[in-house]
Each structure stands twice: as C-alpha cells, then as structure tokens.
Design brief:
Elements (H helix, E strand, L loop, with lengths): L1 E3 L6 E3 L14 H138 L4 H40 L1
Antiparallel strand pairs: 1-2
Helix pairs in contact: 1-2
Length: 210
Amino acid sequence: MAKNCLNCKREIAQGQKECYVCGSSQNIISHYFGSSILILLLVLVSAAISFWFITKANSQVESNLVKLNLAQSQIADAEQKATAALNQLKQFQASAEQAEIQQAQNTESSQQVEGLLAAAEKKAVESQRNVNWLAKQNKQLKAEVEQLTAQVTNAHQTLQQSQQSSQLNQQQLNDQVALATQADKTRIQSLETELEALKQQMQTNSAASN
C-alpha cells in the first residue's frame, strides 16, 4: 500500500520514514513542528542576544551619562577657575596701574626734592660767598683796628717823649694828643661797631644756610 510524501506529495511506500525523492522525514511531528521548534529556538537565542546587547547598551548609556555628568562638573569647575583667574588678572592689572601711578608720583616727588636740593645748594653757595666776603671784610677791619691801635700807641709814645724833652709845650701836646686820641677812639668805636654788625650778619647767614 502506498502513501503520498508529506513534503513533495509523491507516492512512497507505506511505513517508509523518509522520502526517496526529497529526503524529508515522514514523521508528522518532526515534519510540522521541527521547523517551528527551530524557529522558536532561534527567536529565543535572538531575544537573549538582543537582551544582552540592550543590557550592555543600557550599561554603556548609564556609564556615558555618569561620564557626561562628571565632564559637566569638570567643565563647571573649569569655568569657575577661569572666572577666578580672570578676576585675579583684573586685580593684577589694577595693582599694576596703581603701581605705575605711584611710581609717577614718586618720580615727580623726586624731581621736586632734587629741585629743592639744588635750590638749597645754590643758597648754600651764595651763603658761603657771603661768609667769605664778610671774613675778608672782617680781616680788613681787624687790620685797620690794629693800625689805629698802633697809631694810638705811637701817639702815646710820642707824647711821653715830648713830655720828657720839653715841659714848655706839654699843654699843647697834650691837647693835640687828646684830640688825636679822641678821633682815633671814635674811629676805633666806629670800626668795632661795623665789625660787630659783620659778625652778626655772618651768624645770621650761617643759621640760614643750616
């Protein structure tokens, strides 16, 4: 007795397990459900692989999110540091400008001090010239005083000699000597007054130069 092949529909012997034409199995379970089981297995394997890939992708996404958050935090820190550095740079620039202004003021003050020193030096030179002139005048006055003193001494000596040589002209000589002595004393007093005035002027110039 014959039957038809489950796959190619050709006639084959009853009880034959495989078709001699197409080679397919004549077992109903294997024929109808074998491919479905294989497909199911493939689907399960594909689902497992997809689940693994999805899980891995989710973990990578989470890791990337953590890295992104860390990068954003680092960027925020870098922005804060950059802002602080910019503020510090502005402070340095302000300090540099203030230092330049202070240096300009110091330069101006130094120039003023140099001008004052030059004026004081010039005044000291003039005072020294005045002192030298006063010293010269003082020396001349001293010489005149010494000369007048010598003249008075000579007059006294002459008077003494005249008194010894002649008693007759004593009164006349005394009068002449008295007159000469009075004039010389007046001259001496005048010279001493001028000398004292010069000394006071020298002291005043010395105090002004100091």
